[in-house]
Amino acid sequence: MISLEGYRIFLHTAKSGNLTKAAQELHITQPSVSYAIKQLEESLGVKLFNRLSKGVELTAEGRALLEYVEPSFSLLEAGETKIRSLKQLETGELRIGAGGSLIRYLLLPYLKHFRTRYPNIRIRLTHGKTPDLAKRLIEGQIDLGIVHMPFADRLLDVRSFMTIQDCFVVGEAYREWSERTLEAEELGRLPLLLLSKGSSTRQFVEQWFAAQSLPLEVDIELGSLELLIELAQLGFGAAFVTRSFVSKELESRSLYELPIREPIPERSVGIALRRDISLSEAAARFVETLTSPLP
Amino acid sequence: MISLEGYRIFLHTAKSGNLTKAAQELHITQPSVSYAIKQLEESLGVKLFNRLSKGVELTAEGRALLEYVEPSFSLLEAGETKIRSLKQLETGELRIGAGGSLIRYLLLPYLKHFRTRYPNIRIRLTHGKTPDLAKRLIEGQIDLGIVHMPFADRLLDVRSFMTIQDCFVVGEAYREWSERTLEAEELGRLPLLLLSKGSSTRQFVEQWFAAQSLPLEVDIELGSLELLIELAQLGFGAAFVTRSFVSKELESRSLYELPIREPIPERSVGIALRRDISLSEAAARFVETLTSPLP
DNA sequence: TCATGATATAGAGCACCTCTATGTCAGAGT
DNA sequence: ACTCTGACATAGAGGTGCTCTATATCATGA
Lengths: 295, 295
Description:
2 copies of one chain form a homodimer.
Chain A: H1 4-16, H2 19-26, H3 30-44, E1 49-52, E2 55-58, H4 60-87, E3 93-98, H5 102-117, E4 122-127, H6 130-138, E5 144-148, E6 156-164, E7 166-170, E8 192-195, H7 200-211, E9 220-222, H8 225-233, E10 238-242, H9 247-251, E11 256-257, E12 267-274, H10 281-291
Parallel strand pairs in A: 3-4, 3-5, 8-9, 8-10
Antiparallel strand pairs in A: 1-2, 5-12, 6-12, 7-10, 7-11
Helix pairs in contact in A: 1-2, 1-3, 1-4, 2-3
Chain A binds a DNA duplex through helix 3.
């Protein structure tokens, strides 16, 4: 097999027309260049250079070879440049999957920050429920998934990166309910606004009711958290939401949280990654972004 | 500096998705491949493969790199192929087939020129009639054929490269016939010297007579144009020949052309090649020689 | 639980490249 | 002519780094 280093030396020699100069460029000695050229000539079975008194000059065969070797090395160099720029996050893509409202209410500030910092990384977002995201992850269609915990899969590495606290909120119409601590069973006397079945949040609230042996009567169920919040504000009932997602509304008093004696346990949101593959540079950096506090 | 051998190993590994298989292809051992990939990854500072339990799989960065490395190596390989074919010019051979008198009267100057330019190419000449040449071409026994046009074959690429003009010539004995324009039918009053049946030239002259509804009475028919010309000079009659083949004799007035009212159409001579195989370097150069003017 | 088929690691060995030193040669300058 | 300069070639020593064998480790599927 032909030594590839020989081609690199050939290329420099051909371009400078001078073994000694080529040697300097390559930080090796002139005899090494001489040796390498000789090796290459012998492997190919043709003379590549005519040795003149003032340097070397390509033969017809050498010139023919150069026409291939030069672009070949340009490509390799371009490849190395590409890798460098991927490493510097000057290019690349980041494929994120996230469930329901997490993109809008939780991921958005991180995405904004990341996009400002690395404007040339193409961000692709995929919406999907947790099992769907798991499937996409395993198939390599997304780099990482953002899911409600608990969630586990043999092939996935899921690590919590944020805890969230859920609560019930009401609008002005039911404001008085927020002025004293309620027993859990009293909630049944209010119309309940929940996310549709199948969402992690819905599962979670169902479990909470079940844990206390309380029946759960749902009055309004919606796929969109946005709409849920709006209806709560309009006085349609008590909505089960993550507190931090409505912090603005709570501050501006367009929503009120219902204090409940039986505390709603904390949940956490996790990052799901394929266990056996390493992250792309962009994905790794995004995970860092997620796990360190926003400025 | 990055070891180029590493790229070759990377390429094979990426394509087979399996270090062990790549090692076999490269005739080295699996640990060597493992080592090389690791080296490359460390030099570039990125992981190129995810190690799975059933082989390896490119990472995003690896995939990006492959897009450059693969064409780069294709180029190198093409370069090596080119060199190999150029080398053939040092030792190769050129097998030409040509009909009848074409070798001697048309090809010879080109052959001389080619032989001077590429003295190490062994030239093999095959004599044969057009259909025979076609058969040899198709069977790969010759690289190219020189044939009278028109001629076509599904498997052959035939391109005209020279037009020729035929004429009737006589020796001193019939010189007076050359001093006025003859009607075609007057030719019948001269003894006619033609090439033997089966030759393209004979076919052509027969067609010409037939086109004018003239009977053709052949007095002397020979396989050799050389002899035909000699007999014409000796006054045996009018010979049908290609004008450029006897230009020397016409100049030196050992032969005279008969002016004829009905013009004899031009013919052309073509190069026949096999359509589906690429020419050897030597054959390609010879075709160049034929299609560009002699110095 | 075991067999299978992967990759990773450790450590020895040596091939091949690279170096230093020196030879050879052609051309320019005096 | 002679020498000086700048080039490439050759010889031989030396050491780096690749490659090998042997073995570990790990995941998967039966």
